[in-house]
Every structure is written in structure tokens, then in C-alpha cells.
């Protein structure tokens, strides 16, 4: 077996597959956003306007709206009670930008409603960060210890798998936020009947990136399992 089994071995194809899937998903969301980023809403609202209307209608006047640099860096921070819209989103009147802003407002609605998957994801953040930091040192130590390091290897794989768990919990959080966004955009008349399907396409494309991330994480975990199960047989 190679001295460093984590890089150049036949199972590396799984990492390549994960990278390709993630890359294709990213390209698709960028192309979809660009397409509908050129379609301005008939109502004339900016994404920031829409976001504020959604929050106020939900009695979330205390949630601050702020700008943040970057492209599609929009996010809702429950700890700071602030929703940040990126440079390319907040002053745009496009259907794509409004869809993204409404999605982030959907996270604020989840926070208001004490949505369980959102709470679980928040609780997993520090645990997942620890797992990402500690997994490979523990795996390397277990590898160098040989037969006596089997338990450390299992612990390392388990810690590494926390990223996959986080990605899986993220899926319902993101899907639900998008569903809330589309529903509120429609019921409050913030987009026209013709624009709703366009916003849905943007949010569906964005959802693919989360699915791709989960698949890539699964393939990475599978690779480690294959590597070390093969080592145990040797």
C-alpha cells in the first residue's frame, strides 16, 4: 500500500467525480442566475425592497438589512439578527435577485418559527468544524500506528463524516426556505404570475449546489472507508 493512501490511489476517482458534479452544479446556477438576472420584475421592486416587505409582513421588523461585498454572498445570520444582501443582489430589480433575497428572508421565517432542521444545523456547526480540523490528524495517526490504530481510524472517519451529516441536514433547510420564498412572493404579489416560475428555476438551480455538495461529501467518506477497509484486509 502507498505510504500516503489519502491522495494517489484508484479511489481518487471518487474525489474527481465529486469535483465534476460540484463544478457542473455551480456552472448551472451561475448560468440560470445570469439568465434571469437580466429579467427585471414588472413591479419595479429591488431585492432589498422585497426582502424588507417580507420581513415586515412577518412581524420581523427587528431583523436588520445590511449589504455585503461579493457575488451571491447573501445570507441570514440568526445570532446577529441580520440579513445581508450582496452587491449584486440588494439593488437589483431582477427576478433572480428577488428570488435569492426572498430565499434568505425564508431563513428568517424559519428562525421565527423555530424550524427544527435550522436549529439542528446551527448546533452542528461547531461540531462539524471540530470534525473537519481533527479528522485527518487522527486518521494519519491511526495509519502510522498500524494494526493498533484501528480505533483511531474509525474515529477519524466518523469525525470526517460529520461534514456529510451537516450537508444532509442543510438540504431540508434550504429546500424549505425556497418553498417559503416562492409562497410569500406569490401570496404577497411581489412577483407576477409569469415571474414566479422564473424565480423558482433560480432557486431550484441553487438547490442543486447543496445536493452536489452532499454527494461530494458522501464520495469523500466512501473513499476513506474503501482505503482503510482495503488496508485492514492487507
UniProtKB/TrEMBL annotation:
Show the stretches that span the lipid bilayer. Answer: 12-29, 122-145, 151-173, 202-228
Does the keyword section mention Membrane?
yes
Top-level taxon of origin: Bacteria
Keywords carried by this UniProt record: Membrane, Transmembrane, Transmembrane helix
According to UniProt, the name of this protein is: Zinc metallopeptidase
Please name the source species. Answer: Marinilactibacillus piezotolerans
Amino acid at each position: 500500500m502507498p505510504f500516503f493512501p489519502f491522495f494517489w490511489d484508484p479511489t481518487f476517482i471518487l474525489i474527481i467525480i465529486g469535483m465534476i458534479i460540484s463544478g457542473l452544479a455551480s456552472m448551472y446556477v451561475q448560468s440560470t442566475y445570469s439568465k434571469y438576472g437580466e429579467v427585471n420584475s414588472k413591479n419595479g421592486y429591488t431585492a432589498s425592497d422585497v426582502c424588507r416587505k417580507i420581513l415586515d409582513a412577518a412581524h420581523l421588523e427587528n431583523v436588520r438589512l445590511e449589504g455585503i461585498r461579493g457575488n451571491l454572498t447573501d445570507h441570514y445570520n440568526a445570532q446577529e439578527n441580520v440579513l445581508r444582501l450582496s452587491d449584486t443582489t440588494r439593488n437589483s430589480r431582477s427576478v433572480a435577485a428577488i428570488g435569492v433575497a426572498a430565499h434568505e428572508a425564508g431563513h428568517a421565517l424559519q428562525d421565527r418559527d423555530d424550524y427544527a432542521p435550522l436549529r439542528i444545523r446551527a448546533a452542528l456547526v461547531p461540531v462539524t468544524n471540530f470534525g473537519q480540523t481533527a479528522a485527518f490528524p487522527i486518521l494519519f495517526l491511526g495509519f502510522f500506528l498500524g494494526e493498533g490504530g484501528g480505533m483511531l481510524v474509525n474515529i477519524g472517519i466518523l469525525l470526517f463524516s460529520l461534514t456529510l451529516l451537516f450537508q444532509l441536514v442543510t438540504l431540508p433547510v434550504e429546500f424549505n426556505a425556497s418553498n417559503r420564498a416562492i409562497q410569500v412572493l406569490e401570496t404577497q404579489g411581489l412577483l407576477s404570475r409569469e415571474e414566479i416560475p422564473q424565480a423558482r428555476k433560480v432557486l431550484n438551480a441553487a438547490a442543486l449546489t447543496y445536493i452536489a455538495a452532499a454527494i461530494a461529501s458522501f464520495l469523500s467518506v466512501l473513499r476513506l472507508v474503501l482505503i482503510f477497509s482495503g488496508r485492514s484486509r492487507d
